[in-house]
Design goal:
Shape: globular
Structural class: alpha+beta
Oligomer: single chain
Number of domains: 3
Largest sheet: 6 strands, antiparallel
Number of helices: 10
Strand order of the largest sheet: 3-4-6-7-8-9
Order of helices and strands: HHHEEEEEEEEEEEHHEHHHHH
Length: 375
């Protein structure tokens, strides 16, 4: 073998023989003479390129959803610039949900979720989640064509200007990282299919409540069908709900749970803020969303924030409440939530305004930092 390579080198031009002397081409020649081994590459699993291949539809031409999937409606839906939404769940054959921890349901491998967004009757996007063999969730979003004839996989970076909203703003299909920023803020990445969201004791005054699905998929339905196991009997006997001083407060706490609690809770990366807006199912005392907001100084002033808003919530004074000010802003450094909306949810702002206006007193513990001396 070495002799063959040497003869090959001698037959080349002087410049190349110089390179051979340096060793570079000699190695290349050896590689050329050696047999080539083709290594099969395992395809990286990912979302299908077309929504119709995710299994949502029994007939994509008529957009007939597979009747084996369960349509469901959370009682406190996430507001997304007024989009109308439809949601479905599909469990793998024989698969069941482990509800032993009522605040972190465990879904079997192969579970699929879809959420469809429409504006003025036009489908814009459908988001997709699927639990993989390694236990991780696959995130994907599909963009609908203007004629509604197809929905194709959106780039992982998302898509801006997917639909023109009011005031020159537009709906954005979020990136995968943006989706994970919200969904991975609590122990269960599934936010709208949970103990509180599917409680049979539904809030009749829930903000942006949607028509109920048929069949009415709630916790009791899932248990009766054998799809939810290990769920605490005490929560079956007494369905979870907020302990609230009024119907307005219950609706306000529910809105904050559904729209803010996936980031502001006692489990995620923002727990050190001490702002807990997510409901705990077994909690039968005053909501943490009350005790961690009313009378509490803000931790740090956001850019553009009013100097008068030094408390998260100032009882009876909505104008001086930082929480309300941030909800009512769409100045990027100030607005809350920071992702997922381009417009102010005016109905929710009005609801929180009424709640704060009706608060009798601050339930917060006495704080050495008087108003006007917050950190």
């Amino acid at each position: 073998m070495l002799k063959r390579v040497t003869n090959l080198a001698e037959s080349l031009s002087p410049p190349l023989r110089l390179l051979i002397a340096a060793g570079g081409v000699l190695l290349a020649a050896l590689a050329l003479l050696a047999p080539v081994t083709v290594i099969a590459q395992t395809p990286v699993p990912g979302a299908p390129q077309n929504l119709q291949d995710t299994g949502l539809y029994a007939d994509f031409k008529t957009l007939a959803v597979d009747p084996r999937h369960l349509a469901f409606t959370p009682q406190y839906p996430l507001w997304s610039d007024g989009a109308a939404k439809r949601r479905w769940l599909s469990l793998p054959p024989g698969g069941v949900i482990d509800g032993s921890d009522p605040d972190a349901w465990v879904f079997p491998v192969g579970t699929r979720f879809w959420k469809e967004f429409s504006f003025r009757g036009q489908r814009i996007e459908t988001r997709y989640l699927e639990r993989q063999a390694d236990g991780e969730w696959l995130y994907a979003a599909y963009t609908w064509s203007p004629d509604g004839g197809e929905a194709t996989l959106t780039s992982q970076k998302g898509r801006r200007n997917a639909y023109q909203l009011a005031a020159g703003r537009s709906h954005t299909i979020p990136s995968v990282d943006d989706c994970k920023a919200c969904h991975q803020g609590v122990r269960s990445e599934i936010l709208g299919f949970s103990t509180l969201q599917l409680s049979r004791d539904r809030d009749p005054f829930a903000m942006h409540a949607e028509p109920r699905s048929f069949p009415d998929v709630d916790v009791n339905y899932l248990i009766e069908k054998g799809l939810l196991i290990g769920f605490p009997q005490k929560l079956v006997n007494t369905a979870p709900r907020f302990v609230a001083a009024s119907a307005t407060e219950r609706a306000a706490l529910g809105y904050m749970h559904g729209n803010c609690g996936h980031c502001h809770n006692d489990q995620g990366p923002l727990k050190n803020l001490g702002l807990f807006l997510r409901h705990i199912s077994a909690d039968r005392t005053q909501s943490a969303a009350v005790t961690t907001t009313v009378g509490h100084p803000i931790k740090k002033r956001a850019p553009g924030q009013s100097p008068d808003a030094v408390l998260r919530v100032e009882a009876r004074h909505p104008q001086g409440s930082a929480l309300l000010e941030r909800m009512a802003s769409r100045y990027p450094p100030l607005q809350m939530p920071p992702l997922g909306t381009e417009l102010v949810d005016k109905d929710a702002v009005a609801l929180i305004y009424r709640w704060i206006s009706g608060l009798d007193a601050s339930p917060a513990e006495p704080n050495s930092q008087a108003k006007g001396h917050s950190q």
